[in-house]
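Input:
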Amino acid sequence: MSTELEQMVDRTINTDFLIIGGGLAGCMAALQAKRKNKNIDVTLMEKSSLEISGSAIGLKDFHIEQHGMIEHPLPDSFSIEEAKKSLFGVDRLKGMVNARLQYTELINWLKPLAIMEDIGIQIREDDGFMKGLQTYRKGTVWGRTAYDENGKPYPSDMVLYRGSDLKAKLSAAVYNDNVRVLNRTMICNILTKNGTAVGATGFNMRTGELIVINAKTIVIASGRVTRLYPYPHVPYPQNLFYSVGFSGNSGCGVTAALNAGAKIHNMEFIWMYSVSRGSNISSGTGGTGWFFPLMKSNGELLEEKYPERNMMQHGGNIPPINYQYAPNCQNPEIERDLLTSTKANATDDEVAAMYFCSATEKPRSLKFHMMAGGPRNERPLQGLALCAGLTINGIKRENEQAETSIKNLFAAGDCAGHTAGCRALTWGWIVGDYVADLIKDMDQPSFGNTQVNQIKASNERVYSPLNRQSSYAVNPLELEDYVRNLNHEFVGVHKIAPRLKYAVEQIRWLKEAAVPALTATSYHELMRVLEVQDIIELSEMHAQTSLMRDESRMPPIHNRDDYPEQDSKWDNVTIVARKVDGKIVYDKEPVN
Amino acid sequence: MYNIKINYGPDINTKLCSGCKNCYQYCPQDVFGWDESQKAPTVLYPGECDMCCFCEIMCPEVAIDVKIPLHNLLDFGIAPVNYKKISDSFEEKK
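Output:
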């Protein structure tokens, strides 16, 4: 390494397999790679602290699911055509996910269970059986237990397990397998060489170190793009972080892939904040749509009034009310009424299920219920959800090994969102399994001038805002608040061309007008400065792709008020964004 | 530090705190700082607290109470006039 580089870089690490993000996907990738080849050198970069990180800390780490798959084991005749029909399959997601990947996911979806059981997560009940839950009833309601006319429960497509300590045990197993863990380290750049990923730079928000990692293979397993919209019911700055998953998810893995030249797709189908007032929709806290029925002001229960209007029709993963029953863009009757979720008459089973789920979420779920006097004593929550999202956006996978358009760069988990609900454990397993074999015949890549220049650029990008002298010091949180409100007001649920154009122009202008004046006074604040730049890039892609797709598809996920119908010219077409010479360019590509 | 007055987030009872660093080590949002001279945590970025409350359960001395912002209390139906620390309200009211 040149002297110049030595001065810039605090630490250099050589590794076989670099994992960016230590959530479910990242941990599972590490564990499976180590199980297949214990000599593999694995490095895991985690923005938070591995023990408590990833969206699994906030939501639903009590089940592994594959909606609509009710037959285990899968029959020998199982095919891509069959896979398409699953609840979150290609057919129901209006052709926006790849059928081959869908199939890969389905045939592998139970494999992580073996590792989870091996590291001590309680998958089975005391009698040795697994507990299943069916996620739909006659094709309608998701989540709650349902019975057929004979009082028999429907077959399950979800394995429920006791996952309250899931993340703790996964992280303990990762440490136990001698994985090198870099906590509090945020991805800055992916280093590439002739279209192949050869390493990455990371920034430690505690020590301020710039770490360079030379890696044979890399998987981006970072979080979902969640910070594009504000939580609208609380003031700044609480509106930026009141989140159901890991609140640090800024989409930095996605932008790192973008900046390295990888393809990002489906950005018009974005996660938006999904909330009921007073709580976001984590299953325990909100409860709405999960365990307790939603009622109109005249006493009608929504699920009885609209038995077919739910995600079966629209696709998606989280079912807050106006998503599940009637997107507000399609049913003003609901938008103009007061919807409440009342728990006063909840059955013992429903209350128990709610506590079961609360216990696997952020501790605040239980705390809220306790403070409110227990679910049956709670005042009815106003069930006003803004809109939910889909996790089909993110880094585009090109093949069944989850490789991106950059060689040796893989993507797993929420950042690569595939079907709704990203199957983080499954894709982590797939990548770990593949990489363990792949690296055997590979040499450690060498860095040349191009890579040194990439590291220089990284160094410049990271540190220049520190104690920057500018006539107006832009606060990263304030800028983030501005951008997210811009998305809320000008992109949002009711998309129309003139507003979208304004959003795109304004976001592009921000890059020149505000970003160069971003200022931080500590390493922690530098991390927020990096995040807001990611959020701006992602917002541009979100607004621009929303503008390009002149149709509505799976509303309210992508609802164009000026083009309310689905248009067949967009069938099987995904909009792909990538960076060329510092500018984002957009192309249309077939999904399959 | 960002120049915003925040009245929510972790509230550390310094009398109970043993300086084990759990909160500083595990906070997903990096809200805490560490005061080496006092061997005690500080709350550096309360505005970035998302009230996940992991620090409460990771603290072996039960020295942390995460204060919930008013908007959340009111929307969730928790009366501020009856506000108690979580340790006081563990029993569900019958």
